Amino acid sequence: MSTLTPDAGPAPDPADPIDPAPAGYRSVFRVREFRPVFAAHLMSVLGIVVAEISLTVLVYRATGSPLMSALTFALGFLPYALGGTLLAGIADRLPARRVLVGCDLVCAACAAAMALPGTPVALLLALRCAMAFVAPLFQGTRSASLADILGSGDPFVLGRSLLRMVAQSAQLIGFGLGGLLLTVLAPRGAIALTAAGFLGSALLLGLGTRARPARAPAARTAPLAGLRAVLGNRRLRALTLLFWLPPAFVVVPEALLAPYAHDIGAGTVVLGLLMCALPVGTIAGELWAGAALSARTRSRIVAPLAAVAPLPLLVYAVRPGPYAVFAALLLAGLAQAHTLGLDQWYVDAVPDELRGRAMTLLGAGLMTVQGVGMALAGLAAEFLPAHAVVAGSGGLGAAVVLLLLAELRAAAPQEKGPNHETGPVVKWPPGRV
After folding, report:
1. Which architecture, in CATH terms, is 224-417+425-433?
2. Quick check: 393 and 377 in contact, CB under 8 A?
3. Which CATH code of 3.40.50.1820, 1.10.260.40, 3.40.50.740, 1.20.1250.20 fits the domain covering 25-218?
4. Of 249, 253, 388, 392, which has the fewest Cβ atoms less than 10 A away?
């Protein structure tokens, strides 16, 4: 079990010539229990995407209001912080399989209620909030249980990466599939398929995963107990912020792509292609890091890639055309390959009995901070040109990352020297932080 204060193990010696070959994603699928988890994730993600587009169309047809239609999308993000904070303790206090199946059943019931004829708009929005409220608990519990299924080493990192890539891919193809689906089904019929998807996910998780005891049955469930436990430790706090804050800057160009495309005279087709650049780069970067790099190499590239990830956005300072924007966003996405190494640092830093709460809060905070970043970008663009806001976010984001890396280095455990006393040298990047 890793702990928060003692060194969880020696950091790898950069001079050590032994660098095991990467196992690759195929090795993860050899774990029988992971296959139903992956299939359930695929079903639920596609279901959520279909529900989002169908519900947006349904609300717009019922109200004729673009504001209400946009609010339907926003309600998928707003309850994340509240749900992640209030429900985080459940992830460790109850058995993981029970929590996962329960969350899926709640979402299935909400989707089924949305699909009923005559459901008023207010209830549709409330049901959407309920689904988003339990989402961070589900995601955090599943991430924590991956370490039980795959172990806390390289397979865990690759498993997390696969689930992230599925979610990213859903942004690329899910809305297109949802639009095609709505040409043959009414919005309520498409939402009914979402309910079936959640039921299928619950069935896969219930029958395809082992029953394991709760990680910490006596865990405190006070709303802020998990947050205090995660952010109260210097090293774990630095790692958490390194997950949370950089994406708030990287999402700024996505939030402002529509006004920027308008400013440079780009049409809707170009806008659509530009919207794909960041997720395509992110998927490609994760695939490269997971398939071609060893665990030790992934650990070594965390600091440099995290530091340079926001820098391509500086090209916006010269108000570039579509090709340069696409290249900049693609590069910013490719640099997200550092996330795999960061995942390993994080799971090594979190004690087993806190893992569910930590993962729940990690996902909730990530979604919340990205939403805040988009909102602040929009506010800044009311007073400054869009290209200036994006360029500024690139420079500020790089500065924030450097500060967080310095804090993480300062919080890294010191090694014992030959005289068995704590020495002053801290190896960087840390192999087990």
Report:
1. Up-down Bundle (1.20)
2. yes
3. 1.20.1250.20
4. 388
